[in-house]
Amino acid sequence: MKIQEADAKRLLVAQGLPVPPWEVARTPEEVRAAADRSFAAGAEQVVVKAQVLVGGRGKAGGVKLAANADEAERIGREILGMEIKGITVRKVLVAAAADIVREFYLAAVLDRAARKVLLMGSAEGGVEIEQVAAERPEAIVRVHAHPIAGLLDWQARQMAFALGLAGHLKEAVGIAKGLVAAMIANDADLVEINPLAIVREKHASEGVIERLVCLDAKVSLDDSALARHAGLEDLRDLDEEDPTDRAARAEGISFIKLDGTIGCMVNGAGLAMTTMDLVKRAGGEPANFLDIGGGARADKVAAAMRLILEDPNVEAILVNIFGGITRGDEVAHGLIEARAMQSREVPMVVRIVGTNAEEAGRLLREARFETAASLDDAARKAVAAARSAQGVRA
User: 285 catalytic, yes or no?
Assistant: First the structure.
């Protein structure tokens, strides 16, 4: 689950990381009020940033500077309501603009192969890190955190020296350790700061000083762990969530949309992955990962079918059910019910084995469903049906 920048910054603040103050505004008037407060606190400029869960906000015109409250309100009116990569901007972040001396990149990610948290850093911050990794992989510094103790002091110092932050060693060590701590504390998949920056600030008592701060934040949370963290589910931005994903979650169905034409309905994650592999081996491309889970009844099967059919790219549907807790006849009833209500005709191939498979087969034959005895056979038939449907339209 991706969360907005403002919410991500709150998670960093909770771990003691230095994040400059900000406010969230939903109207041009709120933007003006937030800007007024920043200027009253001594800001020379404010930045107005669109809050959308996609990259490229700046290039799309969703990040702008304002020299006064009037200009901030005007910019707020321009950004609020605009679309960035198909997503409507409904709120913005307002903060004092930073006087940046130098930018860095720092992130904690889950390294599944190593089964550890990986801290990645680069002295080339403020740019697309994917481009840096592709063109200059040596510019990325990597350190694995200890699986129990987290990021150790010497590891954090190692990262700081590698990035050229010896002059801000204490701050850099605290930020690096806090980043890993934020990831572990919230069961996150990714906690990213881009840019991590040395900024120049004016203080009445100390004059002009330089300090290391987190200017941006990106956090992705593990959906499966949300139940362990009170309040994190509330950070989900429903305005930007795909309606199909929202419907799948409401039905308790694991669903991920893909780019193919073969809709897949399976019970069990492992079986679902195998089904997708065999679809590809048969020459097709799966349109989704969908696991209806164990014990699925007819209503859940019907709901899963509606999710699949909402994808206009689906040309055929492959149903692969292994009946253990799930009863084959319940699945068959759900399929019959779903087909009676479906808004468009899509060929379907069904393979059901296990509990009550014989009764399921009888019901499906009476309802004139295409069935298959083996998964290989089902995959071949589904791919052929999709190609046939494409040929008819062509």
Answer: no
